[in-house]
Amino acid sequence: MGRWATWKERARALKRETYAVYLACRDPRVPWYGRLLAACIVGYAFSPIDLIPDPIPVLGYLDDLILIPLGIAMVLKAIPPEVMAECREKAAVAMAGGKPRNWIAAGIIVAIWILLAFAAVALTYRLLK
Q1: How far apart are CA 49 and CA 113, in angstroms?
Q2: Which member of 4, 91, 111, 118 has the greatest number of CB atoms within 10 A?
Q3: From CA 32, how far away is CA 26, in angstroms rounded?
Q4: 75, 36 Cβ separation under 8 angstroms
Q5: Residues with Cβ within 8 Å of residue 27, at least 6 apart in sequence
Q6: What is the pLDDT of residues 50-102, one digit of tens each?
Q7: Does the predicted model carry a pTM greater than 0.85?
């Protein structure tokens, strides 16, 4: 197996794990702080807007390659192992049937980014006035 195939498989595994964390975030057996952290990590991972835009060479994907795995590693400590095992199974089944889509979650993420942009503009306006 070539390096490219290995990287593609790792990317698929990261997507599956991220989706499993999303499913765990919705499970009532996960403590509130685990759900909150999971929601932040999943929101960032699935957000169309990155901290560093992807078109910037090397750095654009660096945040995805570092921040998301670190966030997942942190959130896994807050999720009970049996819940995570169930969610991984559900994620594997869902991902095998194609990419799952949640338009409501996507809309919420985009709305949050728009609100943050408006807040930044308003703050900048106040400071420059």
Answers
A1: 8
A2: 91
A3: 10
A4: no
A5: 83, 86, 87
A6: 666 667 776 777 777 788 888 899 999 999 999 999 999 998 888 777 665 66
A7: no
